[in-house]
């Protein structure tokens, strides 16, 4: 029978707290009243990023880069 007395005394627990933000863009066809495209991105938010309009604009640019061009 195998006994590992040292194994019972070793605990490695790490906790990290952070704020996660979700950025969602929905494109709605007003004639059909239906969603035609949706993009969702999530990331860790730092306090300075929440108030940084340039960072928010950059996130919007990255999300909208995936939007299909007209006629595709």
What does this entry look like structurally?
- The chain is of the alpha+beta class.
- The chain has a domain at 18-64.
- It contains two helices and two strands, in the order ββαα.
- The protein has a two-stranded antiparallel ribbon.
- A hairpin with a 4-residue loop joins strand 1 and strand 2 (34-45).
- The longest helix is centred in the C-terminal third of the chain and has 12 residues, at 53-64.
- The radius of gyration is 22 Å and the shape is elongated.
- It starts with 18 loop residues before the first strand and ends in an 8-residue tail after the last helix.
SSE map:
Blueprint: E1 19-29, E2 34-45, H1 47-50, H2 53-64
Antiparallel strand pairs: 1-2
Overview features:
2 strands; alpha+beta; 2 helices; elongated; 72 residues; two-stranded antiparallel ribbon; single chain
Quick structural summary:
The chain is α+β, with helices and mostly antiparallel strands. 22% of the residues lie in helices and 32% in strands. Strand 1 (19-29) and strand 2 (34-45) form a beta hairpin.
Number of strands: 2
Strand order of the largest sheet: 1-2
Name the shape in a single word: elongated
Structural class: alpha+beta
Order of helices and strands: EEHH
Helical residue percent band: 10-25%
Largest sheet: 2 strands, antiparallel
How many alpha or pi helices? 2
Using only CA atoms, what is the Rg? 22 Å
Beta-strand share of residues: 25-35%
- Ends distance: 67 Å
Low-confidence stretches: none
Mean pLDDT: 81
